[in-house]
Structure formats: structure tokens, C-alpha cells
Amino acid sequence: MCRTLAAFPTTCLERAKEFKTRLGIFLHKSELGSDTGSVGKFEWSSKHIKEGRNFSEDVLGWKESFDLLLSSKNGVAAFHAFLKTEFSEENLEFWLACEEFKKLRSATKLASRAHKIFEEFIRSEAPKEVNIDHETRELTRMNLQAATATCFDVAQGKTRTLMEKDSYPRFLKSPAYRDLVAQASAASASLASSSHAEPLHT
């Protein structure tokens, strides 16, 4: 396995550069607002080039399950960029906001943040209103009276299910993602062959 960037085969570096270009299709001008978490833009660095195999596995893993996609920062960024092309990014932004919300430990911060999330995503005619039923909206409103880390669980769960059944399959079928998978597969094969082809040192 290549230990330094200088020792990396030229083909590996070329593949890595292609990765950057392909991922750029998804991530061009894709940036989550500061209020919905700190996902931000995907930033390419030599670290990703040196960890080309891990990145290939990351990209290929996104099609294995929705959980793997959501557990990958690169996957979330790519999925968010895709959702923006469909004007449906509010569902993912709400899910991310809920994930950050559940990490809060201060009761005061929980109450304040809960109302902010409700106003942004849940209430009728909210700026980024998510697609949930009236009963779930009212249940969430009631939960805000005594905000806890679980007060958005039902709404978050329904939003996640909607994304998994609706947006996620379209993401996997999108030309940009399929192209990225082809690049990941090729790069993975290239890295594997270069690893086996390394000369023995005596």
C-alpha cells in the first residue's frame, strides 16, 4: 500500500482527481446553513487522496443502506446537494437539526432550540416546512410544552422514512451518483492492483 503521496502511482492520483471532479457535480455550491448543523462543504485534501481506498468504500457503501449514507459526512453532503436539485432539502436539514438537537444537555438550550426548529421546519407555512401529517405536527407542538431531547423523534422518524422510500432511491439512480460509483469502483481496483504490484524489497 502506498505510504506517501510521492509513492502513490500516477493512475491512483488521476483517479483521485477524477473523484474530486465527480463529487463536485453533487457538491457545487452545496452548503448547509449554520442553523442546521456543521456539515458544510466537502473539502478535498491530500488526506483523501492518500486514503483513496477508504473513500472508494465510502462512496460504494452509500448504496448498501440509507443508514450508511447518513453516517457518512461525504454521503450527507452529496445527498443534500442532490436534494437541492429537487428542491426538497428541507427534510434532510430537519433530520440533521434533530440529530444536533439531541446532543444538547442544557434544559434552557433544549427549550430554545426546540422552538427554533419548530418555527423553521414544523409549523404550518414554516420557511422550510417538512412533509408530515397534521397529527404529527400537533404532537410535536404539544411536546414543546416540556421540551426534551426526544420531542422531535416522531416527526424525525417520519421524515427519515419519507427520504428513505422516496428521495434515496432517486439519488441512487441519478446519473451523477452512478458515475461516481463507476469512478469509485475503478479507483478501488486500481489501488488494489497497485498494492499487489509493489516490488519486494530485499
UniProtKB/TrEMBL annotation:
Native organism: Mustela putorius furo (European domestic ferret)
Membrane topology reported for the UniProt record: Lipid-anchor
GO process annotations (BP): G protein-coupled receptor signaling pathway; negative regulation of signal transduction
GO molecular function, one term: GTPase activator activity
Entry keyword annotation includes Membrane: yes
Residue ranges annotated for the RGS domain, each copy included: 65-181
UniProt-listed InterPro entries: RGS, RGS_sf, RGS_subdom1/3, RGS_subdomain_2
Main location: membrane
Subcellular location as annotated: Membrane
Keywords attached to this entry: GTPase activation, Lipoprotein, Membrane, Palmitate, Phosphoprotein, Signal transduction inhibitor
CDD domains membership: RGS_RGS16 (cd08710)
Function field: Regulates G protein-coupled receptor signaling cascades. Inhibits signal transduction by increasing the GTPase activity of G protein alpha subunits, thereby driving them into their inactive GDP-bound form. Plays an important role in the phototransduction cascade by regulating the lifetime and effective concentration of activated transducin alpha. May regulate extra and intracellular mitogenic signals.
The protein, known as: Regulator of G-protein signaling 16
Keyword Zinc-finger: no
Gene of this entry: RGS16
Pfam entry (one): RGS
